[in-house]
């Protein structure tokens, strides 16, 4: 048991460490100058040695004793506790920053549930009000029952329709192939594939009066694995909480674009961004079986069938003797403006205090947050302690370090987005990088890194200097261990690095403000989990650089790949491409220019006078602003707060990042567009915007003046 | 005659010089360092001595021989000539940068005119097709006849309605007080008070089929002054050309937000930004008399009467025996995508090549452009020559200097806006200031400066070091001469400085990108012009600073004044203010914070180590980004490219700048709003946005990290 614990703690240390160390380079400079010497390198090792896996384990234990739902007393208490410790650790300043944002809670005195009604309107089945409390947590109060935050209130009644995952294509299929109209119905969708908020949006568009979300064992139980607590599969009465907003990066629904402070104008609640107009409620599969059994209507295609022992018929409504039964949702969840608290800690940069490296992760959890988010919180905490220890000894980072413990991530990334809004002007001029620490672990298989292309090289360099945490690989580097398990593709022989998508607090920093960003975690095996003895963990990172470790050549390669990908998608319509004069030549050309500019920039780095502080600053400014150059102030169509032209959260794929999202969205479902002329026109327009943006980014890298 | 010439040339030298010198400080540094010494100060004097009033006169003469309409061969030739000379002058690089933008020309073979038709549909009066060519220019071809660029084509016929200046309030008065409906009518408005594009917009909103614009002598002739060529009053057959777009800063109507390059997607012409849907045509007052005489309908209030010897009756249509007459417009002007050329010259900064000071002005003219723009072009040219001369001698500016000769300003600030769009990402990170040089002279009375508040102090400091150009004031400073003629207000004993409004090429730089900007010119006397002997001109500027000469304390004072102004406007509705809970306390508080931050910033400047290049750079970055902090990426309501929260061109006042435009527009006409709740809600929302923006700007000035 103890071995197991260390087994999962070790990767945490490595992962969170990964990016940060890259930006801690140039760390140990004296306040008055930019000198560096070999003595400093050994200080860097002091820092690495300071980090203790056992501390991380203890923090994780301590921070997961009680629920920490955003907006509760308990979570404010935790904020204060973290702030106090950061101060004690030796950070230069620590503050609680509050916002008054729209949150959503079930009513304790009037619980949410779903009923089957018989022909007389009597409730003949009701879903569970709570989940069974896990062993060891029996005495804990304040566990919020499963609910979908921001659900509309209401008691809609109606026939049930099963809509598979509730994706656009599912509703298309329902309407066109099966001839089923969801208007006035209550729909039931299984969780998975896309963000739940998009399921709700699709249900509303289809005219549904309410939507029930359930976790099907096909999606939430691995074969051959036991349910919790013996294994990590979801128990039948476990249900997935989660917000059902369609915020698209707006932050607090009532104050889109601006921080939710005392003075801030708030929209009326019925005009808030992304609030669903219908009731939504999540249930476990034990309850889902009751609702789905005896449904009538067509039998679904195989891809619509989950793993429950039922026929998954579509409806509407029930069959045979049950045909008079309908379903009623009883939802009393209510929205309320509530104060939330970020903890912001700073260590002032000694040489360039106006350049910020930000390490942030959320603190709020739906309940205990054992993985999400506290596996990240614990790592951030230990890094703060270690850095603080060095600061106490008189060392200073070159650039300012910002530590952030965000609140209300679970309610739509609210704490991080409000802080980004409040500090946008400063951040876009000063922020070098944002590193996100949410769940540091989502499995025990190997490393998973999502980051902007200019960080690829840094990630590879660092992982080559860290030992593998895997048993039997003590002499292998993390890079090799990772590479062995997850090679990128046929064309690139290196470990896979993914695009940043959505679903955590980097969003406002990366997608809205254009700050280079990344995250790392240990991820799960696609095969079943193996339990075995713990590995030994060592890490060494020895370089020292004044130059920001951002690689623009790598960005060029990524842009090239993305362009070929998107061109290939367009080429699925060869006739239209030629009829509507759609060409990717301009974009390919811009990417070529970008790549040349990046290579030339890289070349010039060799000629840099690294002892000339202004020269270094200018080159670093170019690197820092490269990511910013991909921001279009006009935003993506209909998503004004998603402004990164190269990356955006996918509408079509849960948590994934889309490259060239403007073009991609214009191409998606183009064959269903009501007017082909306009649809292809939009594709051309988006290609033109992408071309301009890549071209403008190339200009950032060109020789100054 | 020669005396007169020098009389008006002298102020030109001083004016254009004014801002630029402020930014040329720190100019003579060696490439490898930041040292400065007293020898450099004398080099600065060399520069001042290099400028020759006679050169300016010669350039003005040379550049005004022929018409230089945007998009013509002639104007391209001038671009090449200027580029060649800049190269010869010694600029480091000079390039022609082209864009393909929507321009608009009359058809040579099918001229525009307006007719009065009798009851049989015969033309019984037609307006002039051209203006009489001035003496000395008889042989010149390619003089474009008077027209309104971007007018819709068409031959609408209808009754005429006189709409005074065509302002919102004029149309209100017509409809509500006089009971006159403009729907289906042709309206005739006099030029003046508001931008002509807004008159057209108002006419369209009122349902008019066409609009005729005329120059009334009440607005375009000073009493007691002769018409050209004996005096400067407008002759009766002279007509004002001008575009009638409602661009609101969008640049090329077909590519809003993006540069009009080969690869750029273009909207269909009927979807272009700000293109009027009805014909528009300008006429002189000789023609206007014919159209207005014999009109029927109500007699107008006195404020609607111009200086023509007619009754200015409103219509619709003519009275008595003329009542069957109607008016027909015959407009064939057509829009076409046309290539335009900016000339961009650069002198690379020796120490901070990535910090740009931009001096720009347009080159295109409706015809000869004697004042607009060539009085500015000539000054820019002489500055380029003088600076180039010093560069040839081996001197270098500290920061990069950019010289720009913009094209197609007259068609909607197109050249400057497209370049701003193409370079937006770089400019917002690197541009220190934008100085505009359009008409350098619009009268002979005294100085007129429009600039951002952080430049106030610089303007005062410099004018205190330049001699007055006024006769009999040889021992007086320009500051004193100016102060004597135009004291600010009772509360401030200093020469008046105005807000930047619209109407020239600074717009995209200041209002969209938030770059500190200013312009200066000699302005006219409100009394009649005096012709007298010429003054002697001297200028001396001797300070040397590494610190950007931007004054944030002055910005604080300006914000305070603007807040009190806007609060006073709101207080005209005391009942509503209290009913709808409208308060300016949050804004006043933010302004107070801003002022404290500015004062503290200013204080800290005393403690700066001016020999620490990084420290200087960081402080300068704060100053540079202060103006940027006032930019809201979401823009003003309905005007996405006007993004400066403190300043925007006024909708209500020709070329003027509005402070707190969001709040102002929400308050304007609030009593006519259909729903008072929503209208006051919008006021509250705008106050909140202003509060946030001022607060965020304060943060930019706060201690780093």
How would you sum up this structure, described in words?
2 copies of one chain form a homodimer. Chain A has 705 residues and is of the alpha/beta class. Chain A is built from 20 helices and 19 strands. In chain A, the strands form 5 sheets. In chain A, strands 1-12-14-13-15-17-16 form a 7-stranded mixed sheet, with helices on both faces. Chain A has a 4-stranded antiparallel sheet with strand order 3-2-11-5, covered by helices on one side. In chain A, helix 9 (374-392) links the parallel strand 13 (352-362) and strand 14. In chain A, helix 17 packs parallel to helix 20. The longest helix of chain A is centred in the last third of the chain and has 26 residues, at 676-701.
Regarding quaternary structure, how should these chains be classified? homodimer
Name the strands of the widest sheet of chain A in spatial order: 1-12-14-13-15-17-16
Biggest β-sheet of chain A, characterized? 7 strands, mixed
Shape of chain A: globular
Indicate the low-confidence ranges of chain A by residue numbers: 1-6, 24-41, 526-545
Membrane topology (chains A, B): Single-pass type II membrane protein
Subunit structure (chains A, B): Homodimer.
Pfam family, one (chains A, B): Peptidase_M28
Protein name (chains A, B): Glutamate carboxypeptidase 2
């Amino acid at each position: 048991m103890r071995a197991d614990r260390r087994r999962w703690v070790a990767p945490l240390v490595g992962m969170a460490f990964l990016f940060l160390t890259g930006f801690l380079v140039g760390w140990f400079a004296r306040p008055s100058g930019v000198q560096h010497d070999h003595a400093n390198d050994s200080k860097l090792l002091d820092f690495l040695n300071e980090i203790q896996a056992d501390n991380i384990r203890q923090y994780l234990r301590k921070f997961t004793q009680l629920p920490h739902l955003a907006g509760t007393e308990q979570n404010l208490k935790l904020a204060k506790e973290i702030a106090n410790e950061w101060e004690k650790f030796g950070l230069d300043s620590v503050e609680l920053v509050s916002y008054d944002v729209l949150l959503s809670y079930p009513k304790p005195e009037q619980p949410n549930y779903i009923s089957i009604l018989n022909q007389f309107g009597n409730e003949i089945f009701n879903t569970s009000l709570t989940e069974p409390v896990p062993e060891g947590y029996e005495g804990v109060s304040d566990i919020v029952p499963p609910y979908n935050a921001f659900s509309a209130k209401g008691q809609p009644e109606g026939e049930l329709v099963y809509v598979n995952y509730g994706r656009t294509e599912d509703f298309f299929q329902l309407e066109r192939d099966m001839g089923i109209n969801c208007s006035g119905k209550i729909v039931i969708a299984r969780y998975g594939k896309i963000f739940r908020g998009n399921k709700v949006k699709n249900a509303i568009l289809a005219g549904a009066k309410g939507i029930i979300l359930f976790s099907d064992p096909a999606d939430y139980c691995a074969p051959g694995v036991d349910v919790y607590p013996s294994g990590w599969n979801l128990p039948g009465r476990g249900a997935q909480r989660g917000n059902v907003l369609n915020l698209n990066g707006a932050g607090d629904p009532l104050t889109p674009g601006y921080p939710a402070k005392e003075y801030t104008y708030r929209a009326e609640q019925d005009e808030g961004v992304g609030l669903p107009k219908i009731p939504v409620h999540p249930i476990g599969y034990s309850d889902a079986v009751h609702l789905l059994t005896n449904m009538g209507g067509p039998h679904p295609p195989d891809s619509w069938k989950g793993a429950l022992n039922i026929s998954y018929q579509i409806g509407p409504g029930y069959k045979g003797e049950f045909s008079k039964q309908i379903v009623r949702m009883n939802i009393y969840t209510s929205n309320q403006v509530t104060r939330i608290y970020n903890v912001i800690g700073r260590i002032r940069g000694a040489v360039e205090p106006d350049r910020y490296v930000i390490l942030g992760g959320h603190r709020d959890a739906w309940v205990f947050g054992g993985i999400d988010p506290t596996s990240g919180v614990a790592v951030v905490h230990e890094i703060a302690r270690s850095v603080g220890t060095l600061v106490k000894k008189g060392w200073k980072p070159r650039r300012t370090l910002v530590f952030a413990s965000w609140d209300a991530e679970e309610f739509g990334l609210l704490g991080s987005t409000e802080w980004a809004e409040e500090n946008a002007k400063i951040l876009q001029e000063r922020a070098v990088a944002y590193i996100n620490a949410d769940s540091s672990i989502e499995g025990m298989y190997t490393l998973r890194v999502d980051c902007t292309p200019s960080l690829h090289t840094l990630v590879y360099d660092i992982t080559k200097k860290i030992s593998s945490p895997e048993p039997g690989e003590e002499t292998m580097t993390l890079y090799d261990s990772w590479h062995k398990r997850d090679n990128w593709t046929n064309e690139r022989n290196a470990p896979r690095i993914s695009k940043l998508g959505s679903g955590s607090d980097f969003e406002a920093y990366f997608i809205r403000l254009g700050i280079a960003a990344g995250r790392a975690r240990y991820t799960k095996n696609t095969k079943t989990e193996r339990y075995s003895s713990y590995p030994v963990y060592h890490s060494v990172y020895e370089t020292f650089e004044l130059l920001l470790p951002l690689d623009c050549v790598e960005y060029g390669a990524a842009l090239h790949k993305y362009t070929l990908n998107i061109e290939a998608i367009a080429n699925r319509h060869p006739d239209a491409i030629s009829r509507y004069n759609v060409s990717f030549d301009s974009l390919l050309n811009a990417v070529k220019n970008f790549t040349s500019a990046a290579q030339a920039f890289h070349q010039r780095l060799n000629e840099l006078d690294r002892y000339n502080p202004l020269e270094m600053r200018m080159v670093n400014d170019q690197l820092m602003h490269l990511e910013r150059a991909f921001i279009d102030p006009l935003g993506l169509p209909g998503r004004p707060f998603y402004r990164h032209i190269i990356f955006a959260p996918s509408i079509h794929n849960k948590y994934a990042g889309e490259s060239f999202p403007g073009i991609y969205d214009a191409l998606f479902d183009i064959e269903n567009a009501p007017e082909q002329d306009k649809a292809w026109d939009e594709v051309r327009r988006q290609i033109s915007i992408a071309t301009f943006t890549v071209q403008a980014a190339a200009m950032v890298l060109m020789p100054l003046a």
